[in-house]
Amino acid sequence: MEQKKNAGRLVAVVVTHNRLSHLKACVERLLESPEHLIYKVLVVDNASEDGTQAWLSDHADPRLCNLRIANNIGGAGGFETGMRYAMETFSPDWLLLTDDDGRPYPDTLGAFHQSPPPHQSVATAVYFPDGTICDINRPSRNPFWHMGNFFRTLLGGGREGFHLNASDYQSRSPQEVDGASFVGLFVSRRAVEMAGYPRGDLFIYGDDILYTLTLRMAGGTILFDPALRFEHDHRTKGVGEKRLRPLWKTYYYHRNLLVVYRAAAGVWFWPVLMIILPRWIAKTLHYPGNRREFLGLLRCAIRDGLASDLNRPHSEVVARSEGRFTA
To answer: What is the pTM for the complete model shown?
Structure first.
């Protein structure tokens, strides 16, 4: 029997909701690797109604574990719940976090195990299925901690000012970063001890960046390794486009950005706020036919984000997005 590689026991945490076709591809890719490379695959099913439970129950590989959530608690809630369960149940040395539409390249797990990473977390290079870089998963450096990134961002660089670029992906040299996504992120036991668990009450958006920033602020390190590759079959309209769909996502996106900005910017938070608020209001132009609903959601997002109030019911958010909420 082949000996277990030296990175230790690895458990994958996959969060899903009504995307069985994606989940199948993800799980099958993970389970292609033998047990010494991946010990368990934990699927956190956020109340799916598309046959996900039946497929998981019928799967023959004993390494596949199913954690069913009765109500959809969002991706953030799924990762927090799944990480807690995995740590308490399987005692892993490492967790591998991914959405259901993400999956490692066939050689990624083996390459990860070749030597124990000296960092608390390792971010992979994430690509679309066609081989182009998946923009929403590019790791980043906090511009408020790195002056070079700060000035590049300030002088019109936007996202390019603080996110890694194509040359970083082509390099053979890993480098430290401050923020990374939950698509292809390796998280060590030590990282969990240092940073705890993600903020499940964020529901969707920003939980991964906030968590990795928290790890960095706790003294942990995050390594971007371009030799470790992940595939993200991301086809839905979302962050990075001019209009978020469905409309209710705009509430979580903007509310959670305020939470992330406060953590990232520190004493610079209020000056940054004066810059971003007019830009957010200007987005109304991208919502013809739904401008009233967009502005209502944005107003709630700003109020809740500034107050760090993450308790607004999802049912209310959806109702507001559909113009049928009455106080």
So the answer is: 0.92
